[in-house]
Amino acid sequence: MPPPLSYAIPSFHPAAFDDLARPLARLRALGFRWVTFTPAWTVSGDAAPRLAAHRTPPLGKLARAVARAAGHGFHVRLEPHLEWECTLSGGPYRWRRDLVFAPAREENASAGLVVGPLTGILAAAAAMFPERRFVLTLGSELDESLLALAQGPGGWEELPKQARASAPRLAFSQKINHDAFIRRGGALPARARRFLAALDHAAISFYPPLRLDRPRSWWREDTRARHVAEAAEAFALAAAKIAEPARAIAPLAVGEFGLGSADVSAPWRFNCPDPGAIAEVRRKYYLGFLEFLRGSGGLFAAGPATFWTAGHFDVLGVLPGGENFRDEGIEAAVGGYNSAIIGE
């Protein structure tokens, strides 16, 4: 069966989750039954990364946001992001994939500062709302850290055991980049494989280059069923390459997807000064992705497929300031997709 959809509500400032009434109402009206909160911790220092929570809501606010979403009928995924401080403060851009640290080591304290408190928040919500499902992403797009230190003391393989001991009702995941397996030919360290196999599922940050040999004029044509079908086929080919080495290790989900520019060969790029100018490109991309999910044969059915939504990625105009990015064609397709799978 095709997976349900989730919508990310990210945080880059302490008040990010203060006003959830409109976003949750909009998502509910569109048929969403999952929401993903992404609290963001900042990191500084290479040799011994130091974590800080000054750019994300306090834990009490996060707990209230989770309870509020569950009370409105949503299943909840909590997905902490670790972001380089220089990236968020306007300095040199650095990507979290290159962070290298041992999360369960006392001196690093990410297990105690991030995973432990978030596990507690979800465990409390699960006790209050036993009919809801709750997922915690232990780490998001931290491939180099996972592969470099899964074998050492305090590595990632210790986190699932620690988390399950305190919260057996929760599901646990790890989000990995779309090329993490491909770049290494599927040859992951044994303990990294055991870590992923110990999770409920692995979530793919799904931004593969979309290989669709069509001229720019094709992408700017009014979107028709034939365009959507071709885009869906291109997604299926990309997914097969990603999934082949990964699904032997753990069940899979799409942890994040979206289009940040008109360049479908690099959908992760954040460059869209005028969303209206590339409306048909975005429409083909997102409608093709939904069509791919429908026909994926359960390949990514282990968890919800989550829209990334920062800035102009907010194609449904759900978040504050996102109305200018809203695409009614994508909105209608999302509503239809959700209607078809309600109750699954």
General description of the model:
With 344 residues, the chain is of the alpha/beta class. Helices cover 36% and strands 16% of the residues. The chain is built from eleven helices and eleven strands. It has helices at residues 21-29, 59-71, 85-88, 110-128, 143-149, 159-166, 190-197, 216-220, 225-246, 279-294, 328-341, and strands at residues 5-10, 34-38, 40-44, 50-52, 75-78, 81-84, 134-140, 171-177, 201-206, 252-257, 305-307. Strands 10-9-8-7-5-2-1-11 form an eight-stranded parallel beta sheet, covered by helices on one side.
List the helices and strands and how they pair.
Elements: E1 5-10, H1 21-29, E2 34-38, E3 40-44, E4 50-52, H2 59-71, E5 75-78, E6 81-84, H3 85-88, H4 110-128, E7 134-140, H5 143-149, H6 159-166, E8 171-177, H7 190-197, E9 201-206, H8 216-220, H9 225-246, E10 252-257, H10 279-294, E11 305-307, H11 328-341
Parallel strand pairs: 1-2, 1-11, 2-5, 3-6, 5-7, 7-8, 8-9, 9-10
Antiparallel strand pairs: 3-4
Helix pairs in contact: 2-4, 9-10, 10-11
Outline the biggest β-sheet: 8 strands, parallel
Structural class: alpha/beta
Order of helices and strands: EHEEEHEEHHEHHEHEHHEHEH
Low-confidence stretches: none
Radius of gyration: 19 Å
Beginning-to-end CA distance, first to last residue: 8 Å
Helix count equals 11
Shape: globular
Main-sheet strand order equals 10-9-8-7-5-2-1-11
Could you give the count of β-strands? Answer: 11
Overall pLDDT confidence: 89
Quaternary structure of the protein: single chain
**Share of β-strand residues:** 15-25%
Helical fraction equals 25-40%
